[in-house]
Amino acid sequence: YVQDSLSLIDAIKIGLWKNYDIQISAKNQKINKINNNWANAGALPVINLSSRNEEALSDQSNNPASFIQEELRSTAINGSANVSWTIFNGFAIRANKKKLNNLEKISNNNATLMIENTIQGIILQYYNCILQKNKLELLKKVVRLAKTRLEHEKSKYQIGVTNKIDLLQIENAMLTDSSNMILQQLNYTNSIKNLNLTLSKDIETQWTFTDSIDTSINLFNYEDLKRNTLANNTNIKNQYYNIQLSKQDIKLAMSPFYPTISINSGASYNESTYDIGELANSMSNTGESINYFANFSINFRIFDGGKLYHNIRSLRIQKEINHLQLEKVKNEVLYQLSLTNDNYNSQIATFTLNQKAFRIAQTNYNIATEKQNRGIINSFMLRDIEIAYITSGINAQQSAYRLMESKIALLKITGGIIQNYTQK
User: Fold this and answer.
1) What is the distance, to the nearest Å, from the Cα of residue 370 to the centroid of all Cα atoms in its chain?
2) What is the per-residue pLDDT across 281-314, written as a single tens digit (0 to 9) for each?
3) Which of 201, 313, 338, 368 is placed for a possible disulfide with 196 were both Cys, Cβ 3.0 to 4.6 Å?
């Protein structure tokens, strides 16, 4: 496969453009934007036009009881126009419009949440590819050195400088690391496929990753993090909008306590033609009429058995529930913020220690390799040091990934992940 270069920012751009969930969310945004209009709120008049053409035939030619014994034909054309307009209905129109505004804001907020989740997923999967690649490179390096050492050990064994136990130990270690390398290659391949799935790309697309894991360390002030979270967290914003919706529901429920004022006007036109056989020549057989009307009505509900009062009481309780849910969401988000911030600070210390441990293990491994080649230490001691080197290298890579992961979690919970990764 041809490998294309891929940076993190390019991956995010592809994901935001191609991701199916984001496309669906954008369509829902458009629907709510279209629905948010004064017509749906009930503020605009309704105009109806109608027309009807009627043909009728009544054969009375053989009916002795009929006064006119003829085939009676009639044709009628009817047309009407009607305009109805509710001028006032207890502030329900304004409440409906505000409710539509809030529904559009919730839709936009849900789209924002989808974008945040997608960006976070792309970042984690992109860096996971690099993590798996770095692990693979580490194992490749160990296997490559082991193969060279094995060839060298075979030469020494053939001239009797070393024993077969050391030779077999080195060969066994190389085979074990080779097996681990194959499994790690599979992990790396699967991580790329997972990334391609999120990017809505062909699963088999291969990439050359141009970025390394972001291990830059930022020191955050916790009070600043709290303020940003309360102001920008998407889940908290959605709960605010739910409270606004409950307020509009209460206003809508109270609207029947006010009068409803409406205007209804229109006109109708009727034209009729009669064919009454031989009598048609002696009398007029065509008639037409035009009627106009205009009504002004005021309706006021006096009593409905108390249903409105019960409904309003229920809605006010629901509003209280929404306020409690807001406080609950705030507490949960701030709790998660505290855990995430503590985790980030711990990851800083862990990352620093693991990097230092890896440098020491790497130096120790290089020294041990030279000593084993000179016969100062045996293959068993070298293998112990080699395992410590591999473990330390993997720990260093994983701590770098976890440091990045915790920082991304902080950016998301404080509502800053979109600004940080879409304005670069």
Assistant:
1) 55
2) 545 567 777 888 888 888 887 777 778 788 888 8
3) 201
